[in-house]
Structures
1.
Amino acid sequence: MALDSKIPAGPIETKWTNHKFKMKLVNPANKRKYTVIIVGTGLAGGSAAASLAELGYNVLAFSFHESPRRAHSIAAQGGINAAKNYQNDGDSVHRLFYDTLKGGDYRAREANVHRLAEVSGNIIDQCVAQGVPFAREYGGLLDNRSFGGAQVSRTFYAKGQTGQQLLLGAYSAMNKQISEGRVQFFPRHEMLDLVVVDGKARGIVTRDLNTGEVKSWAADAVLLATGGYGNVFFLSTNAMYSNATAAWRAHKKGAFFANPCFTQIHPTCIPVSSGHQSKLTLMSESLRNDGRVWVPKKAGDNRPANQIPEDERDYYLERLYPSFGNLVPRDVASRRAKEMCDKEHGVGATKLAVYLDFSDAIKRLGKAGVEERYGNLFDMYQQITGENPYEVPMRIYPAVHYTMGGLWVDYNLQSTVPGLFVLGEANFSDHGANRLGASALMQGLADGYFVIPYTLGDYLATKGTDKLTTSHEAFKKSEEDVKAVTKKLLAVKGKTTVDEFHKKLGLIMWDYVGMARNEAGLKHALEEIRKIRDEFWKDVLVPGSETEFNQELEKAHRVADFIELGELMALDALERNESCGGHFREEYQTEDGEAQRDDEKYAYVAAWEFKGVGEKPELHKENLTFEYVKPSQRSYK
Amino acid sequence: MMNITLKVWRQKNCNSKGAFESYPVEGVSPDMSFLEMLDMLNERLIKKGIEPIAFDHDCREGICGTCSMVINGRPHGPIKGVTTCQLHMRSFKDGDNIVIEPYRAKAFPIIKDLVVDRSSFERIMVAGGYVSVRTGNAQDANAIPIGKHEADEAFNAAACIGCGACVASCKNSSAMLFVGAKVSQYALLPQGKPERKDRVLNMVAAMDAEGFGNCSNTGACEATCPKGLNLTHIARLNREYISAVLS
Ligand SMILES: Cc1cc2nc3c(=O)[nH]c(=O)nc-3n(C[C@H](O)[C@H](O)[C@H](O)COP(=O)(O)OP(=O)(O)OC[C@H]3O[C@@H](n4cnc5c(N)ncnc54)[C@H](O)[C@@H]3O)c2cc1C
Ligand code: SF4
Ligand code: FES
């Protein structure tokens, strides 16, 4: 199948504007005749639900959470980018476009990224109008900070709780539509299958997590906004429930999965302390605005931080990257931290950490100034580690944080299954091989507030759909399939818990498909993951029954999918014989250890087609062309 | 390593009667989080063929508001400003007995064990927790300057994570702090002004309809709230309500 990205013709600055004009509109009176299913009500899904309902569509929104406000978007800390140039420091749509494309190591579509930069300003306007309390200056105007990979201050924030405030904004807009009856929200409903009829996405099958009831829902289009798949690694900064099941089951129904190996390892997380650890906690990248990263110059130096004199400290990011310093992009900062620890300059009990030091910032801004900016992050750090970061430097280490890969979508956010649209972190669209800080919130809200309202209308107006109810056999079949998998999981009655399998998978993924990858390691990982899959279905122990609230059963479904997805990630990483952004193949690096791209052979999106469990998926390539930004070796020196 | 004993509320579903069960937990490391300690216990229970303890959680970093249990009589446990998921075992000592219960409030029915249904909070928000603004061409964000002080105050109100600890800590199961927080946020901002009266009336009506109790100013909510929301929000809610009723 040829992949058509549907990028509109014309100069990049006018593509989106012209496309919006050319797209068909649904007549206002007809909109309410269309039912749209939205799975996931985080930033992307919540904003889409509110906007589509406002337009008049009949929206059915589903989340496995008890409330939209619990979605993992709530945890985003640092901020959201927008090319407002309020600081008059030289920002522009073009610069945001350029930074994002370069930050993604030239593995994203120019047209998508440009559109994202274009609508970024509207997002801030929209959120302020909703009453989102962004940080302000004394004069009453909005404040900005800077983030990695940029030399301008374009990040809007609400203390260290930007995601919370933006999500509550989208949630409030959605609540307004619920109150008017245009959105129906189904909490604690987990999508376990996508229903495709005559080649079009026409509905879903859910399990009610309170009662276990399996049910079908029909619609004219289905939107997935179900978040990322970082939890394949077990330990990540994602919430415990974040999972890939909706995307994976859609993949099995024909939606191609793009660039699965592009995962982001965030440089500033609290290091792992013990084997009981259930998740990792991010310390926002915004900390790198004022914190300085260092390690002892001497390998194996065991002295406490405050006993290491200034001239025996290696501020390695400032040394290696004089112009970006501590604000290099995430992939670069993570890799360098790993390198320092590999060379035995690591600190703390496990030696798998580097320092992030605020003593200079405290001297410059005063303790109160630092508290004003980062107070809640410092408290969080202290609560977890028992150490006071106002007094001793933080210890940080990279952790899995975000997945750039996801379901393949065209410019209209439509997947390879007509009528199935994918928004937010669940799609692969805008971040290439590495996402810049504060750009995921921007993308999720761009998709939901400003892109899908247009492109969905075009689909419905041109393709229109015939009436269909859940009595169609395709729904019955999906329901049976879902029930069969559930029964199978419960029937194994083995000896190994779901978490044990998940942790085992996570370790393999981290060791071989993590920050640094190589051919032998990836081949080994593929073998090991297949073994885990076989063992899982022979030996998993899932207690309880399917007709009740059963958290182990929920996890079992998700981990079964993580195992299959993990295999695809390793395969994708093996096939991509280059390094780019977060995908670092040790065989392909420059003399000074930077990622070495191979634009001749790999300037493409790898979109995988599912061929059956244990079967080799088929690779489809979408070639990337660059007309406006010449790909170059990324340099942050 | 510590050994502790948990007394945990077990209840199969909303229709059955619950009871406390005791579980000794050995080998607890002080670096573990409280929920990691429960994870460890659950793994052991599963292997012994006992149903694991159901509890709600997700972000495990104090922001999603999902974790919800009462630990030794206090929602979110012993430390001020800390949610259950951020609590670490270093706050306990070897030999401790720890009692864990679900939130108890008429408006939060129990789903299973420690998991409760907080959809009553959702219905209050649907009744008025928003500014009516359409997506599209909102005016430039800097066209409405807002003083830093008001903006910060509004932020503090908006920091509520919707956990429900305020309700669980209140002898009347009042939701005034939760509702006051949202009403305050919008009352402090120019964007919230046009719908100010309807909002407070509708949200308070929804709160009453859900069966939350009245506020008798004991201050238990303020003392328990993990996000430091204080009684000024309740005071503002009362002022907003009275002026809406009078006008
Ligand atoms: C700790 C942390 C900090 C971050 N900080 C920043 C930041 O400062 N700036 C930034 O730009 N980005 C940040 N990010 C990234 C950003 O927060 C996420 O990429 C973004 O919020 C994802 O939004 P989403 O709407 O796509 O998904 P989510 O918010 O994860 O929402 C997923 C939704 O899908 C639902 N769902 C999933 N599967 C199913 C299913 N099978 N059935 C039913 N419902 C389902 C869930 O219930 C939920 O409602 C951060 C991420 C993390 C983890
Ligand atoms: S006011 Fe505090 S205790 Fe009550 S729901 Fe909000 S955060 Fe929780
Ligand atoms: S689990 Fe999210 S606040 Fe506790």
2.
Amino acid sequence: MPETNPYLDAMRLERGVPPCVIVIFGANGDLTKRKLIPALYRLAMERRLPPECVIYGNSRTPITDEDYRGKMKAATRQFLEQSDFDEEVWADFERRLYYLPGDLSDPEFYATLGARLKESETTTGGNVLFYLSTQPSHYVPVVQGLGAAGLARGKGWRRVVVEKPFGHNLESAGSLNRELQKVFPEREIYRIDHYLGKETVQNVLAFRFANGIFEPLWNRRYINHVQITAAESIGVEGRGEYYQQSGALRDMIQNHLLQVMATIAMEPSAVFEPSSVRDERAKLLRSIRVPKSGEIDVDTVAGQYGPGRVGTSDLAGFRHEPGVHPEARTDTYAAATFFVDNWRWAGVPFYIRTGKRLAKRITDIAIHFNSAPLAIFGDGAGQVAGPNLLVIRIQPEEGISLRFLSKNPGAGMRLRPVSMDFQYGSSFGVRTPTAYETLLEDAMAGDATLYTRQDMVEASWQVVQPIADHWDEAKYNFPNYDAGSWGPQASDAMLARRGHVWRVP
Amino acid sequence: MSAIVTPERILKDLQQLWADLGKADEYGVLRACSMTVVVAADEEEDAAGLEETLARVMQRHPSRAIVLRVRDGGDVYFESGVKAVCWPIGNRKQICIEEIEIRCSDASLPDAPRMVLALTVPDLPVVLVCRSPRWLMVPSFAPMTALAGRVIVDSRRAENTLAILRQIARSGSVHDLAWTSITPWRKHAAAAFDDAENLRCLSTLNTVTIAHGGDKPGPAALYLAAWLAAPTAAQVRFRGGAGCDLQSVMLEGPGFQLEFTLQPPSGLCVVRNGLAKKEAFVLSSDWELLDEELAMPGRDRVFAEVLPKAIALAEG
Ligand SMILES: NC(=O)c1ccc[n+]([C@@H]2O[C@H](COP(=O)([O-])OP(=O)(O)OC[C@H]3O[C@@H](n4cnc5c(N)ncnc54)[C@H](OP(=O)(O)O)[C@@H]3O)[C@@H](O)[C@H]2O)c1
């Protein structure tokens, strides 16, 4: 008997997603309605979700299947990205969408769930994807509930997708991992970091490792420094209560932005396979220098927004947002300088900043190359314009642009910077899948390349924990930046110490 | 259409077109280009249909299209025209198709390759799409096929299946849309063998039967049969009849029967040992076939292996 299917043809035949049941815990929540159901609907629309797939949503609110479907339909209409809503596709999709009310601390609920899973076994082969879209404090009780009811093992595969945050510090991350692994083997635990599912973040790998011209320059000899910016113009949008428990450092840098940095800086893997790509990413995360206590004050900046005015709108400060304590010490802005201790990157600063209520919504990575070794066109020419800059834009307009110097038309040798632009989505005229579509499909197909692993989570906590501890102790004079600005002045000073300035993206 | 036709003249017209588009737009236009697509078509071929196919494909594969429309006849003549199609991106526009149309006669065909070569976008791949398989057989067209890194034909349009398949095998760089057209069948068949039970039965498979339209199997039926039989020791049988190109596939062995039957317009009935289920089945349209083929990163290894086997089946 052949060991593997001889008819597979990765080049032309789409990877098959096997029939399965998707169980969403936290089905009434924000993430489910904004991201998960719209992504599953889109997969169904593109026939990438097998027709046998069934979705069970769980929350406590006692509503019927019909009510739940109506609610999700309205949400999908509202949150579907770059796509029209199709009534017929929805009608077919919602027939496979069920609501199972119940409290996830109640063992009875798992018995009911078990019975429903049994019913669909003939069509789905017993494959089940459990998605934890609940508050983080529920992760362990749900996994224990599944384990106790015998639902973590079955006829087909059983996988669990865990949303961030993976713990609120190094210790809790370790303990969460241990609890998860008591019930599910590591290879069936999918820790989602939706940044890694974004097309342009994946494109960084293609850009670096498929083009021979950039990789030879991708090191300390040619790259002066790297700036990673993830700015939001919005505030906490009603999630103030949750946000004040985490803050920008834990919410963004510990997971998403260190993963992005790892993608930019990792070594090429020998093959493009889940374990080797993840090994390289993990290796890079482990090489990030853990800041010492004396360095934290100079190499990191915490900020919190106060009231500000943008155009004709007055914006409230963080402490005046609903649900936020009037003396909250939460960092709504975080910036840090990181170094990678390996031969490729020794001495190259990686500046990361992220925050809420900044001047505009943008996420990008800017690679600042060294200046030409000799200014043969005179000081003015090169200096004003600055050295070459490669910008990888992650959102909102995904693309890549390269800035270089060119001669101004006419007499004399006056130079000016010009930008060569590549717009990712529009150049190919194809709708790019959302990160959740990519990641959900990958999880169903058993491909963990874009998911984080226990060792990566722990490595990034190793780096962030000393900063978080230091910040928890410090008495910052918050608020220290106006809503609608580019963040605290201390952040500019952090770069100025090494002769650098933040780009205005 | 220009009166004097030289590559310089055509490129100048194109340049002028970009400049005009740029002036008309406050933010200027961006241009994206990933290849040159040369399309060889007979003059009488439905122009609107071809335009529609190109417009849809080029949106996904921003390219310079050079459409060569060839008219029967002995008088030497060339005519040309240029146009560009833009898409809005944010508040800017991006040129995604730049199209050069060249009309010529059979008699001027020997001069066409040099002209086309001068019009291709430097340093990017050149793909030649022969709307009619006859182009592959025309000697004066050989330099044109030589300048393209990839030639795409549809052997289903050829009158003599065996001759065209042999020609494709000889050339080495020709991709066949008849092969592309069976991707949905291959997808369903491959998915069936993801099932461990079915996979176990594969080594005992002894017959592959393909029901097709017409007396003799066309290229699509030959490809599908050759591909399905390749990993097995099964015999291939063809069953002709009325109706479309490919109608059903039956795989049989001792105690094992798996049948796929087309249920127009968009269904496929899959029966395993008497147990039936219906799956969605979508045949690709003209532009989708071309789109799939242009998206292929390089040589199609599976096709290269199947082609000689399909020829052997056609030879009987
Ligand atoms: N929202 C986002 O955009 C986003 C982005 C990235 C990551 N995340 C992560 O995703 C997870 C979910 O976030 P979220 O914003 O969707 O949370 P949420 O809005 O608070 O939703 C959680 C849902 O769980 C249900 N629930 C609460 N207690 C329950 C219990 N004891 N038993 C059963 N159900 C219970 C609640 O519905 P009932 O009241 O009906 O029970 C609630 O709607 C969090 O871990 C978050 O960190 C969210």
